[in-house]
């Protein structure tokens, strides 16, 4: 039997939005894709079928990225299933209802930091263990999905979420240097106002339409536009890029 030499990618939070668009584009570009999600099994399964229809392999893994044991199990599953990991997209992330600082509780802040920051750290750690040349790996590429909020701070809306994205950017920078000699590139994207269901979780489903006129490009972005940048950063075309960030925010 011929050995499948297609690269393997893990996209966290791939059941909808930017993660879903990224998983689909990676499949179109010849990657086998591990679809991670935490709750929405029906949507994740529908994506797996779409990827299958493209003639590509997928692996569905339900795992909360903030749960260390679940993360280790997910990476082990990929290893057992395909025996390699070439690309990681740390896309899963949450925000909560818009609030000023006076409405923030320790529980809420910790939950956001736990998923957005600790979850990203854990996935990076497990990926590096498998990709690093010193461990016999073949190198690889990681893209962390940050946010324009890391630079704006999201006053009056999402201070805690913005701070979590700032932490992700710092991780991207430091880790990129730490693993550059291991054949691993680590980059970040900072989307701005993208049409996804995340804004409804913040309590304002039409947030992008409210804000779009204030953007230099005067429109919101589509998940596919973010996916294209992520997939480029993962590709060999970006072979000399590490520790860098692409702003995908319509000029903001
Ligand atoms: P979304 O539509 O809310 O999708 C989030 C995805 O993450 C879902 O697939 C969800 O899966 C998954 N997820 C949530 N918590 C998880 C956990 N603990 N473990 C594993 N998966 C989890 O979000 P999006 O708008 O596509 O955003 C994707 C990324 O882009 C996020 O990191 C977000 O911060 C960033 N971003 C988005 C925008 C924007 O305007 N949309 C702007 C800047 C940055 P389940 O439903 O199965 O839990």
Task: Describe the protein in words.
By secondary structure, the protein is α/β, with parallel strands linked by helices. It has one domain (8-248): Rossmann fold. It contains nine helices and seven strands; from the N terminus they run E-H-E-H-E-H-E-H-E-H-H-E-H-H-H-E. The chain has helices spanning 17-28, 41-53, 68-82, 106-131, 149-152, 159-178, 198-201, 207-211, 223-234; strands spanning 8-11, 32-37, 58-62, 87-90, 140-145, 184-191, 245-248. Strands 3-2-1-4-5-6-7 form a seven-stranded parallel β-sheet, sandwiched between helices. Helix 1 packs across helix 9 (223-234). The chain is globular and about 55 Å long. NADP nicotinamide-adenine-dinucleotide phosphate (NAP) is lined by residues 12-19, 36-40, 64-66, 91-94, 115, 119, 145, 147, 191, 193-194, 196-198, 201. It is an enzyme of class 1 (oxidoreductase). Residues 7-187 form the Ketoreductase domain. GO terms for molecular function: glucose 1-dehydrogenase [NAD(P)+] activity. InterPro entries: KR_dom, NAD(P)-bd_dom_sf, Sc_DH/Rdtase_CS, SDR_fam.
